[in-house]
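User: Before I run my own analysis I want an independent prediction to cross-check against. Here's the chain; please return only the C-alpha coordinates and, at the end, one sentence I can use as a sanity check.
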Amino acid sequence: MYATPLYELRQQPHFSVSSIKTFLTCPRKYRYQYGDRLRPDFKPAALAFGSAWHDTVDMYLTTDMGHDELRTHLRDGLSQRLSDNDILYDDEDENEDALIDLGIKMLDAFVSKVPKPERTLGVEVPFSMTLAHPVTGEVLPVPLIGALDAVVSNGETTAVWELKTGKRRWDRNQTEFDLQPTAYTAAAEELGYGGA
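Assistant: C-alpha coordinates:
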Protein backbone atom coordinates (compact mmCIF):
# COMPACT_ATOMS: atom_id res chain seq x y z
CA MET A 1 0.00 0.00 0.00
CA TYR A 2 1.14 3.55 -0.69
CA ALA A 3 2.60 5.21 2.43
CA THR A 4 1.84 8.85 1.55
CA PRO A 5 -1.75 10.02 2.20
CA LEU A 6 -3.77 11.09 -0.84
CA TYR A 7 -4.19 14.69 0.31
CA GLU A 8 -0.39 15.02 0.48
CA LEU A 9 0.10 13.42 -2.92
CA ARG A 10 -2.40 15.86 -4.44
CA GLN A 11 -0.35 18.83 -3.17
CA GLN A 12 2.34 18.15 -5.77
CA PRO A 13 1.95 18.84 -9.50
CA HIS A 14 0.24 15.84 -11.06
CA PHE A 15 -2.31 14.53 -13.51
CA SER A 16 -5.46 12.70 -12.48
CA VAL A 17 -7.66 10.47 -14.60
CA SER A 18 -10.29 13.23 -14.48
CA SER A 19 -7.86 15.90 -15.65
CA ILE A 20 -6.66 13.75 -18.57
CA LYS A 21 -10.23 12.90 -19.58
CA THR A 22 -11.18 16.59 -19.35
CA PHE A 23 -8.26 17.54 -21.61
CA LEU A 24 -9.17 14.87 -24.17
CA THR A 25 -12.81 16.00 -24.14
CA CYS A 26 -12.34 19.77 -24.05
CA PRO A 27 -8.90 21.43 -23.83
CA ARG A 28 -10.51 24.79 -23.03
CA LYS A 29 -12.38 23.34 -20.03
CA TYR A 30 -9.10 21.74 -18.92
CA ARG A 31 -7.39 25.12 -19.07
CA TYR A 32 -10.14 26.84 -17.07
CA GLN A 33 -10.40 24.09 -14.47
CA TYR A 34 -6.82 22.87 -14.06
CA GLY A 35 -4.69 25.71 -15.43
CA ASP A 36 -6.56 28.85 -14.38
CA ARG A 37 -8.18 27.00 -11.44
CA LEU A 38 -11.52 28.71 -12.00
CA ARG A 39 -14.28 27.34 -9.82
CA PRO A 40 -17.91 27.20 -10.92
CA ASP A 41 -20.51 29.17 -8.98
CA PHE A 42 -22.46 26.00 -8.23
CA LYS A 43 -21.68 22.41 -7.21
CA PRO A 44 -23.48 19.67 -9.12
CA ALA A 45 -25.90 17.68 -6.95
CA ALA A 46 -24.44 14.55 -8.57
CA LEU A 47 -21.05 15.31 -7.01
CA ALA A 48 -22.58 15.65 -3.54
CA PHE A 49 -24.54 12.45 -4.13
CA GLY A 50 -21.43 10.53 -5.21
CA SER A 51 -19.43 11.70 -2.19
CA ALA A 52 -22.12 10.58 0.26
CA TRP A 53 -22.52 7.27 -1.58
CA HIS A 54 -18.76 6.53 -1.50
CA ASP A 55 -18.59 7.41 2.18
CA THR A 56 -21.45 5.02 2.96
CA VAL A 57 -19.94 2.14 0.96
CA ASP A 58 -16.64 2.77 2.80
CA MET A 59 -18.57 2.33 6.08
CA TYR A 60 -20.16 -0.86 4.73
CA LEU A 61 -16.71 -2.26 3.98
CA THR A 62 -14.82 -1.11 7.07
CA THR A 63 -17.31 -1.30 9.96
CA ASP A 64 -19.94 -3.63 11.36
CA MET A 65 -22.74 -1.13 10.73
CA GLY A 66 -26.08 -2.79 10.15
CA HIS A 67 -28.34 -2.00 7.21
CA ASP A 68 -30.47 0.50 9.15
CA GLU A 69 -27.35 2.29 10.43
CA LEU A 70 -26.00 2.51 6.88
CA ARG A 71 -29.32 3.96 5.68
CA THR A 72 -29.16 6.61 8.43
CA HIS A 73 -25.52 7.35 7.61
CA LEU A 74 -26.35 7.83 3.91
CA ARG A 75 -29.45 9.93 4.65
CA ASP A 76 -27.50 12.20 7.03
CA GLY A 77 -24.57 12.50 4.61
CA LEU A 78 -26.84 13.42 1.71
CA SER A 79 -28.81 15.92 3.80
CA GLN A 80 -25.62 17.62 4.91
CA ARG A 81 -24.09 17.79 1.43
CA LEU A 82 -27.28 18.77 -0.40
CA SER A 83 -28.30 21.51 2.04
CA ASP A 84 -25.66 23.90 0.68
CA ASN A 85 -27.07 26.92 -1.14
CA ASP A 86 -24.69 26.44 -4.05
CA ILE A 87 -26.02 22.99 -5.09
CA LEU A 88 -27.28 22.79 -8.68
CA TYR A 89 -29.78 20.06 -9.56
CA ASP A 90 -29.78 18.55 -13.06
CA ASP A 91 -33.51 18.16 -13.56
CA GLU A 92 -36.63 20.12 -12.63
CA ASP A 93 -38.01 17.29 -10.52
CA GLU A 94 -34.69 16.67 -8.76
CA ASN A 95 -34.37 17.91 -5.18
CA GLU A 96 -32.90 16.90 -1.85
CA ASP A 97 -35.76 14.56 -0.90
CA ALA A 98 -35.79 12.85 -4.30
CA LEU A 99 -32.04 12.23 -4.18
CA ILE A 100 -32.22 10.89 -0.62
CA ASP A 101 -34.98 8.48 -1.68
CA LEU A 102 -32.90 7.39 -4.68
CA GLY A 103 -29.82 6.92 -2.50
CA ILE A 104 -31.69 4.74 -0.01
CA LYS A 105 -33.10 2.58 -2.85
CA MET A 106 -29.60 2.21 -4.32
CA LEU A 107 -28.18 1.28 -0.93
CA ASP A 108 -30.90 -1.31 -0.35
CA ALA A 109 -30.19 -2.88 -3.75
CA PHE A 110 -26.41 -2.74 -3.21
CA VAL A 111 -26.51 -4.40 0.22
CA SER A 112 -28.91 -7.11 -0.97
CA LYS A 113 -26.94 -7.93 -4.15
CA VAL A 114 -23.29 -7.32 -3.22
CA PRO A 115 -22.10 -9.66 -0.48
CA LYS A 116 -19.65 -8.13 1.94
CA PRO A 117 -16.17 -9.37 0.97
CA GLU A 118 -14.18 -11.57 3.34
CA ARG A 119 -11.57 -8.84 3.73
CA THR A 120 -11.28 -5.19 2.83
CA LEU A 121 -7.64 -4.47 2.06
CA GLY A 122 -8.22 -0.73 1.74
CA VAL A 123 -10.62 2.04 0.83
CA GLU A 124 -9.59 5.18 -1.02
CA VAL A 125 -6.21 3.53 -1.59
CA PRO A 126 -3.86 6.27 -2.88
CA PHE A 127 -1.48 5.73 -5.76
CA SER A 128 1.15 7.69 -7.65
CA MET A 129 2.63 6.31 -10.83
CA THR A 130 4.89 7.44 -13.60
CA LEU A 131 3.42 7.60 -17.08
CA ALA A 132 5.69 6.67 -19.97
CA HIS A 133 5.11 6.51 -23.71
CA PRO A 134 4.74 2.81 -24.60
CA VAL A 135 7.03 3.05 -27.66
CA THR A 136 9.58 5.78 -26.96
CA GLY A 137 9.73 5.37 -23.18
CA GLU A 138 9.51 9.15 -22.77
CA VAL A 139 8.30 9.90 -19.23
CA LEU A 140 5.80 12.64 -18.37
CA PRO A 141 7.28 15.20 -15.98
CA VAL A 142 4.51 14.75 -13.39
CA PRO A 143 2.90 11.54 -12.06
CA LEU A 144 -0.64 10.24 -12.32
CA ILE A 145 -2.18 10.43 -8.86
CA GLY A 146 -5.49 9.00 -7.70
CA ALA A 147 -7.20 6.58 -5.37
CA LEU A 148 -8.76 3.18 -5.83
CA ASP A 149 -12.25 3.24 -4.28
CA ALA A 150 -11.72 -0.13 -2.60
CA VAL A 151 -9.51 -3.19 -2.75
CA VAL A 152 -11.22 -6.31 -1.45
CA SER A 153 -10.38 -9.98 -1.13
CA ASN A 154 -12.39 -13.19 -1.12
CA GLY A 155 -9.94 -15.98 -0.40
CA GLU A 156 -7.47 -16.16 -3.27
CA THR A 157 -9.21 -13.48 -5.35
CA THR A 158 -8.41 -9.77 -5.02
CA ALA A 159 -10.58 -7.17 -6.73
CA VAL A 160 -10.53 -3.42 -7.18
CA TRP A 161 -13.92 -1.77 -6.78
CA GLU A 162 -14.61 1.44 -8.65
CA LEU A 163 -17.99 2.82 -7.64
CA LYS A 164 -20.07 4.79 -10.14
CA THR A 165 -23.31 6.62 -9.38
CA GLY A 166 -24.03 8.11 -12.81
CA LYS A 167 -27.50 8.19 -14.31
CA ARG A 168 -26.43 6.06 -17.24
CA ARG A 169 -24.91 2.63 -17.14
CA TRP A 170 -21.51 2.31 -18.81
CA ASP A 171 -21.78 0.54 -22.15
CA ARG A 172 -19.39 -2.19 -23.25
CA ASN A 173 -17.10 0.20 -25.18
CA GLN A 174 -16.82 2.62 -22.28
CA THR A 175 -16.07 -0.22 -19.88
CA GLU A 176 -13.42 -1.64 -22.20
CA PHE A 177 -11.78 1.54 -23.50
CA ASP A 178 -12.27 4.24 -20.86
CA LEU A 179 -9.02 5.53 -19.38
CA GLN A 180 -10.08 4.96 -15.76
CA PRO A 181 -10.26 1.13 -15.68
CA THR A 182 -6.96 0.97 -17.58
CA ALA A 183 -5.20 3.40 -15.23
CA TYR A 184 -6.63 1.80 -12.10
CA THR A 185 -5.66 -1.70 -13.24
CA ALA A 186 -2.09 -0.49 -13.81
CA ALA A 187 -2.10 1.26 -10.41
CA ALA A 188 -3.39 -1.88 -8.68
CA GLU A 189 -0.60 -3.94 -10.24
CA GLU A 190 1.98 -1.33 -9.22
CA LEU A 191 0.64 -1.44 -5.65
CA GLY A 192 1.06 -5.22 -5.60
CA TYR A 193 -2.55 -6.22 -6.18
CA GLY A 194 -1.73 -8.30 -9.26
CA GLY A 195 -4.65 -9.96 -10.96
CA ALA A 196 -7.12 -7.45 -9.51
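Sanity check: The two ends are 14 Å apart (CA to CA).
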